[in-house]
Amino acid sequence: METKFHNFLLLAISLLATQLPSSSSSSTSTIKKFHFNVEWKNITRLCHSKLLLTVNGKYPGPTIDVNEGDNVHVTVTNKVARNTTIHWHGVRQMRSAWADGPAYITQCPIGAGKAYTYKFSVVDQRGTLWWHAHFSWQRASVYGAFIIHPRTPFPFSLPIYPANVPLIFGEWWNEDVERVENEMMLYGGGPQISDAYTFNGLPGPLYPCSDKDIFIQTVTPGKTYLLRIINAALNDELFFAVANHTLTVVEIDGVYTKPFATTAIMIAPGQTTNVLLTADQLPGPTGIFTMAARPYLTSVFHFNNSTTIAFLKYQTNPTSKHPPIPPYPLPQNLPNLEDTLFAANFLNSLKSLGSKNFPCKVPQRIDKQVITTISLNLQDCPNNQTCRGFQEKRFFASMNNQSFVRPSISILESHYHNQTLGFSPDFPERPPFAFNYTGVDPFAENMSTSFGTRVLQLPYGAKLEIVLQDTNFLNPENHPIHVHGHNFFVVGRGFGNFDAERDPLGYNLVDPPERNTVAVPVGGWAAIRLVMDNPGVWFVHCHLEEHTSWGLAMGFTVESGREASQRLPPPPSDLPPC
Ligand SMILES: *[C@@H]1O[C@H](CO)[C@@H](O)[C@H](O)[C@H]1NC(C)=O
Ligand SMILES: *[C@@H]1O[C@H](CO)[C@@H](O)[C@H](O)[C@H]1NC(C)=O
Ligand SMILES: *[C@@H]1O[C@H](CO)[C@@H](O)[C@H](O)[C@H]1NC(C)=O
Ligand SMILES: *[C@@H]1O[C@H](CO)[C@@H](O)[C@H](O)[C@H]1NC(C)=O
Ligand SMILES: *[C@@H]1O[C@H](CO)[C@@H](O)[C@H](O)[C@H]1NC(C)=O
Ligand SMILES: *[C@@H]1O[C@H](CO)[C@@H](O)[C@H](O)[C@H]1NC(C)=O
Ligand SMILES: *[C@@H]1O[C@H](CO)[C@@H](O)[C@H](O)[C@H]1NC(C)=O
Ligand SMILES: *[C@@H]1O[C@H](CO)[C@@H](O)[C@H](O)[C@H]1NC(C)=O
Ligand SMILES: *[C@@H]1O[C@H](CO)[C@@H](O)[C@H](O)[C@H]1NC(C)=O
Ligand SMILES: *[C@@H]1O[C@H](CO)[C@@H](O)[C@H](O)[C@H]1NC(C)=O
User: Fold this and answer.
1) Which of 55, 207, 279, 323 gives the lowest tally of CB atoms within 10 Å of its CB?
2) pLDDT for 97-140, tens place per residue?
3) How many other β-carbons are positioned within 10 Å of the β-carbon of residue 364?
4) How many angstroms is it from 196 CA to the middle of ligand 2?
5) Half-sphere exposure of 348 (CA within 13 A, CB side)
6) Domain boundary assignment for the chain
7) What is the pLDDT of residues 515-538, one digit of tens each?
8) Minimal CA–CA distance to 237: which of 264, 260, 276?
9) What CATH superfamily is the domain 157-357?
10) Where are the transmembrane segments (predicted)?
11) 418 within ligand 6 shell (Cβ under 6 A)
12) From residue 283, how far is each of 71, 244, 332, 528, 577 by CA, in Å?
């Protein structure tokens, strides 16, 4: 213990020394500049070569490494004949809504041959976040880690080797993803499922023609590592485990948690999880332990139930030349595909650190409560079309029975000019009528929805509670709901219907987890609280990309406050036009 603490102090000091520019004080800030070229790159996986959309030819894209407090300028140059935008997932974007990135919400897309410089600062945030394209399904390959190094000491006994290699999960399609998306939208069916899950872009040896495409993390026996885990998969929640090792969760979505040991994690698309792993096992002759990820399935519709593996390789004596040979035993701790109990227990174990330096600022009282269903829907097939959804109809999805229709202008620009062009500020604060949301027969009801571009209008500083209620329509499912521009506190979650009388009594208003993406329990609900302290327009959507395409989204506008420091500045001069 003593030694550990001593090491921790030493490391904390050396880390601080290496991370703070020598001349800087907390009042000066540094500008960190990055150049992102969105370009095609010929990439081969599973013996299929294709032109893949990338940033700077890298798959996954480059890691952004900055220090807490930095000003960040990323110039994105679009070198392809398609539109694009980039979103900095989890970055608060305080008073910089223009740099948030979702197409047609905060900006028009960056057209072919054009550039836009995203300018924002990372204040009072630290840890692992990520970035990804926010146009169409481009985030299938356009994504990377966004690491904010803390200016204050890490509040845990520090990893000796802060492995800055993130572990990013993704999905690989042998086909062009734009074609997959277009086909889904044309016929209204589910998307063609991916051909593989990936670790840092590599499917691993359990897939055909993939023996060499294995991510390998080498470790020194006895040392502790910080693994920065990011789920960038398009449509799948994942379980992750490392054979024979326990994981200690210390951070989620860039916010410290009370550390807890677990045999595996569940991570939804959009979420990040930092875990400590100590290389404290006795390796066999190959020195290899498998790391594995496979989906947490709550959908009855087609999913690829396969597993991606990577290797944790102990750097043993130079004599360890044995190549790893199959079979590669899966971690015994890896939960089964439908292990909702594991997912629920894991998520219930997450608590904010809530220390003196990192307090948990959950609002104790609220100004407004919004209750919204999150739902799948079915629409009759138009007479002259072929539809491939359930019962030959078209799939849609909605919140409070509003299926979000993407506008053709930027909502933020319209809002900034005090207009409501292209959207209406009347998102319903309650479901249109109350029914047994999680008790109805999934297939017998009228599952149609309404369409619109409706947002919630909120005053500056409002303290909001949103209850997200899953429904049984078609398929109760675990939905990862992401809120742009704000972190929120998950004060309650449960199965079945939210009970407005009883459930708030069980809220955690002491140390609830703070994050930017909540996995709403399958056939259940989650209550989140957040403060509208950031003027602008903010997208709220399911981070399963197919559900966003079907309309499982809404937005809110936050007015500027009275003080100059509470106002949204004018749009930058290089903001792309529509
Ligand atoms: C990509 O590279 C492979 C292997 O070098 C090659 O066979 C294929 O023609 C290339 N594809 C494209 C679209 O350039
Ligand atoms: C699903 O996973 C398997 C590996 O088990 C893979 O061979 C297959 O191509 C994947 N995709 C589809 C569409 O089935
Ligand atoms: C890992 O754990 C399994 C199950 O407990 C055990 O059979 C195996 O020998 C262990 N592997 C190594 C390399 O220690
Ligand atoms: C995965 O899906 C395939 C094809 O649908 C099925 O044959 C197989 O049993 C499934 N595997 C698991 C572990 O559920
Ligand atoms: C189908 O019918 C709609 C409404 O009558 C029409 O607007 C649309 O162009 C038709 N589409 C095709 C593919 O014929
Ligand atoms: C929008 O309305 C506010 C409040 O009336 C005003 O201060 C602001 O200047 C208006 N903005 C524009 C762009 O007209
Ligand atoms: C909702 O439906 C479920 C399943 O039929 C039933 O168990 C539950 O009691 C119902 N809840 C209410 C409030 O009616
Ligand atoms: C479902 O609702 C739609 C839209 O209101 C309506 O056109 C349709 O007739 C309804 N279907 C049933 C079976 O109630
Ligand atoms: C949703 O809206 C559609 C179209 O107006 C209507 O038919 C349906 O009954 C509504 N469903 C719910 C659950 O409110
Ligand atoms: C790109 O976006 C602009 C603005 O919305 C639109 O006018 C244009 O048609 C889009 N171009 C492509 C290739 O999709």
Assistant:
1) 323
2) 999 999 999 999 999 999 999 999 999 999 999 999 999 999 99
3) 9
4) 6
5) 12
6) 20-152, 157-357, 368-566
7) 999 999 999 999 999 999 999 999
8) 264
9) Cupredoxins -  blue copper proteins (2.60.40.420)
10) none
11) yes
12) 44, 10, 16, 43, 57
Asked if domains 157-357 and 368-566 share a fold, the reply is yes
DSSP 97: G
Could you tell me the distance, in angstroms and rounded to a whole number, from the CA of residue 169 to the centre of ligand 3?
Answer: 25
Element (H, E) at 404: strand 402-404
* Protein residue with its CA nearest to atom 13 in ligand 6: 417
Q: Closest ligand 3 atom, CA of 243?
A: 1
Cβ 436 under 6 angstroms from ligand 7: yes
Selected residue with higher pLDDT from 322 and 499: 499
> Which residue from 58, 54, 47 is spatially nearest to 86, judged by alpha carbons?
54
> Residue 49: CB within 6 Å of ligand 4?
no
Q: Among residues 158, 311, 319, which one has the least CA distance to residue 223?
A: 158
228 by DSSP, 3-state: which?
strand
Q: What is the C-alpha to C-alpha distance for residues 14 and 28, in angstroms, rounded to an integer?
A: 21
Indicate whether residue 337 lines ligand 4 (CB < 6 A): yes
Q: Which position has the token pair 């409501």?
A: 420
This prediction has a pTM of 0.93
Query: Which candidate, 37, 39, 95, 32, places its Cα nearest to that of 67?
Result: 32
The domain defined by 20-152 folds into: Immunoglobulin-like (2.60.40)
Question: Which three-class secondary structure state does DSSP give residue 17?
Answer: helix
Q: Is the CB of 417 under 6 A from ligand 6?
A: yes
The strands making up 463-470's β-sheet, listed across from edge to edge, are 450-452, 402-404, 394-399, 368-379, 463-470, 524-531, 488-495, 514-515
